[in-house]
Amino acid sequence: MSWSRTKRARQRAQRRRRIHAVLVIGALIIIPIISMALGSLVAVGAILSEIPKLENKGEVQNWQTTKIYAADGTLLTNLYYEQDRIVVPLSAISSHLQHAVIAIEDERFYKHNGYDVEAILRAFFANLKSGHVVEGASTITQQYVKNTMISRDKTFDRKIKEAALAYQLEQKYTKDQILEKYLNTIYFGQSWYGVETASQYYFGKRAKDLTLSEAATLAGIIKSPNYYSPYLYPNRVKERRDQVVSNMLKLKYITPEQAREATATPVQMKPLSEPPTIAPFFVEYVKQGLIKKYGVNMVFKGGLRVYTTIDLKMQKYAEDAAWSILNRPTDPSASIVAVESQTGHIKVMVGGRDFAKSKYNLATSHNRQPGSSFKTFVFAAAIENGISPFKTYLSSPAVIPIAGSKPWKVSNYVEGSGGPPMTMREALVKSVNTVFARLIMDVGVGKVIETAKNMGIMGQINPNPAIALGGFRNGPSPLDMASAYSTLANGGKHCSPVAVTKITDSSGKVIEQHQPEPKQVISEATAYIVTDTLQDVIRRGTGTRARIGRPCAGKTGTAQKYWDAWFCGYTPDLAAAVWVGYPQGQIPMRRVHGIRVAGGTFPAQIWAKFMSQALRGKPQRGFSKPKGGITNVLVCTESGLLVSKYCPDVENKPFLSKNAPRQRCPLHTKPGIVEIPDVVGLPKKEAVARLERSHFGYSIFYKDEDRSTRGVVISQTPLGGEKARQGTVIKLVINAKPLSQKVKVPNLVGLTETQAEQQLSTLGLKVIDITATPYRRGRDKRNEVISQSPAPNTELQYSGAVTIYVNRKR
After folding, report:
1. pLDDT recorded at residue 156
2. Which is the catalytic residue, given 372, 373, 395, 477?
3. Shortest CA distance to 792 belongs to which of 743, 754, 740, 741?
């Protein structure tokens, strides 16, 4: 085809496009003219039966964004269904923004009746001249109708309906009401709807606080949010902003000085932020709870304001504790849940290592075996049902007959130790399986299940005596365990775990508000006795790595084959459960950082690190003793009965008043050869009391000693740990130097664990030892202190605590 023929073909096509444009736009002109001649669009509706009625269409719901907040008011996330929207009244929108939108979108807004004949004529001639559509004639009212009431198809029929509904809308609402509705429904890109949402995301401020330049920029985006994206095309956005300002000046909304200042201002937008990652497992837990209660539409479209319990500082401490200890790519994962004892408020929820990679929430999973951490509930049920904590059981391997089933074979193969008869109290401290297998048969499986459920275990518990050792089909979740252990911290009162404290609608009207409702599920006396025992688990039992230098109690747990490892513990105010394991299934943790992972290793260390940070700066307080129902009795720790003259090891322990022992110990009626207590480093009064309890005599000598604190035992003869007949006189040398209020912390780095503990004990300081990670190889460094807190030469009060980090390998 020749060039001339091609040119003629193009001209013919151009003429056809112009004729088509004339026909379309002419029709748009004719309709308003007919409408004006008849007096209103209602007349057109009488002629054209297809014209819709406003009352039949209804207006689209202004879907609003639901916002979820942390306990301190920090916004955690927004929930919305395709549209992120916040609805505000016109009074909360800057006048600059109102004027900017009118100036660029519909400058005759306050003069027309829903459609603008003048604008239609202007658009007609502009489009006719260019040969294609370059200018629209839709009013703000028509745009609102198009956005909310009818389909967005670009058809002639739709334009007729749009004009008809716009006219009807103008008869029903004032101009300001229509402008308010429009400004709350405009799309600004990025799934952001309405000027308030757009203002906050683009500029980080409310719509009422926008400057003239910002308001003009926002108004300029409306025509085409993608074409005028400030993040992709800043030059286009500036040109469009300046055009808006020029229109505002022409309409006398602003002065020339304001226009010059606005156009001279650079276009600066708030950087796009990544989706929120704060406490993602907790946020998902809250979201699913809201959906279950209120439904999808209300949650994603209702503009709820949800105020939660999460403590972001504690959350960070928990995450840091877990991933600083489990710090290698092949390490197992962890879950941590912390609950405020007096309210049930969930303060921390770590549901896994990386929410982006796996949204499976380990914190609420009921697929893990609790191991020995469930022994606490067996013990509590026994105390609640009148069994003395000093009742003795054989601790040797057991074969227990089960009605209708095979005999139950039990041994102490994962954690704990056993052999001779021991009290059930000592069996809990040392986590002895065989004692608890025998104990649950005495208490009854049903009573144990009832106690556990009352205390907070929500999942299904199979009625099998193996639950005493953590043998579950579907085990309790970390959330369950934290909640149940918080019952002990709260004196036997259980508060259901709570994630949301208040919910309001978008106007601030309260829909739901939570008030704690503690329920006494076990007696205060039982809770106190269990807590007293669990304190010994941390002092000297399987949980020594959970020591934090303040009153606390807890229990370790290790599932068979090292599949799951737990530490569940609490202070008077806060309970926390830590689980460590592989999310993908039952994978043995036999060699992680060179050790077998039991509850007393990584879980206890993570718990201690988290709780130390979470409670830093908060006053220490002990567990409150009940005003009634408890009697403290000096008993022989071996028999659990009232002390006889020669009982070698005695303790003042709490009992239920109705079950306090009344019989004297028959085991120690005459002097025996027993181990001498080690009292070096103890104050004189405490050292003497300890010797007297073991029925040794003592003689006191004084000596000035600069290296230790006044009033403490410098040395003893014979040495602690040696055996002697009761009644032997032990020589004690007491430091008589002038009283020192402060103790200077020595440099312990490089010492062995034993050397460090002895040195601190001599100075009257307490020691908290933690296994350092990662393990430092080299025989010369094994079991050495590699760091300490506080630093050497720090002055502490006598009996203050020093944390040592020991290079252990297990």
Report:
1. 55
2. 372
3. 743
